[in-house]
Design brief:
single chain; 360 residues; alpha/beta; BirA Bifunctional Protein, domain 2; 3 domains; nine-stranded mixed sheet; 15 strands
Length: 360
């Protein structure tokens, strides 16, 4: 059924457009139940946006949970090992406490997952779809991309302990170079080995320029692989609106490699969040790699509705039933929205006004 943009809200427009975008890249819809066994979420609470989960006991005595996340369900449903690549998108409601909130809400979430023999192209495709998703929602967007493997290489070069590495990542995520120096000094680290880490803390901008700067500061095979992967993946991503920004940090228990967050003008928090999560696959016993992202559709309510110059494409002045029905069908089949009336002065704003007998 044709539905004109002028009668859709922001979230409805976005869902229609995003589903079409993902389907055009070979992603098929994944459907899941409203609830899963609680143990799926209990063992992976730090992966969730909120650790609070609504639970209940079913008639068989099992502890169940209303789903707070979709990715975990998709990973659990995947075979332990398989060849090829599985591409899915989802359009589901999840149940959790939003960031900064105090009570549970039903939240609409859309996203994609690419699972299996995912290579650099697959990761590039996922990041490209994240950028295209933002562009469909607003012309003013920014996709910030990072590589956790390069951050890991920098903390190893500096000689940080595991605790120090975690604290360093936290300071970098907050763009706090002073706090990062305190972390290094607290572990007795100074000098040249720490410079790549300090460089990452301030690295932000056009990907090719940032990579060029970083290549001269890092040494070692791990750093070289990470820089090469970053350049290779981003070579397939549209440049507009995309920046390398190493303040994007994910939980390394789940994420590895390329991670990203996406923003649009008018919404202060990230509208899109995702990345590569091979570590999550391994934690759940899956011999496969994966990448994906989620679009937090509920945040679109913070954007003002765009003003429309018209309500429908065509104001169709009715004739007899048969003629009017044929005219309306012809116009609608051609992709135009139609409002049928016998009163040309009914107050409906339309691109044009025609009589039914003029169409047949």
């Amino acid at each position: 059924m044709f539905i004109p943009d002028s009668v859709l809200h922001n979230d409805e427009r976005a869902v229609f457009a995003l589903r079409a975008l993902y389907g055009g890249y070979g992603y098929t819809q994944y459907k899941m139940n409203k609830f899963e066994e609680y143990d799926l979420y209990a063992g992976n609470k730090s992966f969730l946006v909120s650790e609070d989960v609504i639970t209940f006991t079913d008639r068989g005595g099992r502890l169940m949970a209303l789903k707070p996340d979709v990715t975990l369900s998709i990973v659990r449903s995947a075979p332990a090992a398989f060849s090829g690549v599985r591409r899915v998108f989802y359009d589901e409601n999840v149940y959790r406490v939003p960031k900064g909130g105090s009570s549970f809400k039903e939240i609409k979430q859309l996203g994609i997952e690419c699972i299996g023999d995912t290579d650099s192209y697959c990761v590039s495709e996922v990041i490209t779809l994240a950028a295209k998703s933002l562009a469909l929602i607003s012309p003013e967007y920014r996709l910030e991309v990072s590589n956790l493997d390069l951050l890991s290489a920098a903390t190893e070069l500096a000689g940080l302990s595991p605790r120090g590495a975690a604290l360093a990542a936290e300071r970098i995520s907050k763009k706090d170079p002073g706090g990062l120096r305190e972390v290094c000094f607290a572990e007795g680290l100074r000098g040249q080995n720490c410079e790549p880490l300090f460089l990452l803390a301030g690295a932000c901008g056009e990907p090719a320029e940032v990579i060029k700067t970083l290549c001269g500061a890092f040494r070692g095979e791990k750093a070289a692989r990470a820089l090469d992967e970053t350049e290779r993946v981003l070579s397939g991503v549209p440049a507009r609106g995309v920046a390398l920004d190493f303040s994007v940090v994910g939980d390394t228990n789940y994420y590895n490699g390329m991670v990203f967050k996406g923003y649009v003008n008018g919404i202060p928090s990230a509208l899109i969040s995702g990345g590569r999560y091979d570590n999550l696959m391994a934690r759940m016993g899956k011999n496969a790699r994966a990448a994906g992202f989620a679009v937090y559709i509920d945040l679109l309510g913070e954007l003002p509705e765009p003003a429309a110059d018209f309500d429908f494409d065509v104001l169709l002045i009715a004739s007899d039933v048969e003629t009017t029905a044929k005219a309306a069908e012809k116009l609608n089949s051609g992709g135009e929205s139609v409002f049928v009336t016998r009163d040309a002065n009914c107050g409906i704003r339309a691109r044009r006004t025609v009589r039914a007998e003029e169409i047949i």
